[in-house]
Amino acid sequence: MNIPFLDNWRKRQGGDAGAPSVAGGDPEGVAELLAECELLRVRAGQHGLALDDSPASLEALDQLPPRWRDDPEELPWLGNDAGLYLGTVIVRTVPGAVWQIWPGGHPVVRLPSGREIQVVEAGLEWAATGAPELSQVYGEAAEG
């Protein structure tokens, strides 16, 4: 999913929109933006789940009743947030994992092996169908 605010932020930071980068020179700043996931955090909080950026929180999210599937307008937003949250957990807990921002603002997570994980797509699939589970995607990333 395209994240337009990242394009504007990268332009202000002097990033080259034509080449992939790790957060346009400020990986911590972009990581903080991507970690917000406000809608997901609100919905999780409504179920008594505080998202603490841990692998265990991904397992807890996998157990939530998928009421968002009843709202076709909310589903893609929640799925996008779920993907960004998945990426946040990977980047914060898997040594050497980093955000990679592609042209057009598309965020992926790059593992030390060079493998890239399309976390937003995984989050959208999880929101729509429940599979793959977020904890499963994390487990695969943590293995290498």
Kindly summarize this structure in a few lines:
The chain has helices at residues 4-13, 27-34, 38-46, 55-62, 75-93, 119-129, 134-143; strands at residues 98-102, 106-110, 116-117. It is mainly alpha-helical.
The major sheet is characterized as: 3 strands, antiparallel
Stretches with pLDDT under 50, minimum 5 residues: 4-10, 15-20
Report the count of strand segments.
3
List the strand order in the largest sheet.
Answer: 1-2-3
Cα end-to-end separation: 25 Å
What's the number of helices? 7
Strand content: 5-15%
**Class from secondary-structure proportions:** mainly alpha
Helix fraction? 40-55%
Q: Quick one: overall form?
A: globular
- Nearest-integer average pLDDT: 87
Oligomer state equals single chain
Could you explain how this protein is built, in words?
With 144 residues, the chain is mostly helical. Helices cover 52% and strands 8% of the residues. The protein has 7 helices and 3 strands. Strands 1-2-3 form a 3-stranded antiparallel β-sheet. The longest helix has 19 residues, at 75-93. Residues 4-10 and 15-20 have low confidence and may be disordered.
Helix and strand arrangement:
Blueprint: H1 4-13, H2 27-34, H3 38-46, H4 55-62, H5 75-93, E1 98-102, E2 106-110, E3 116-117, H6 119-129, H7 134-143
Antiparallel strand pairs: 1-2, 2-3
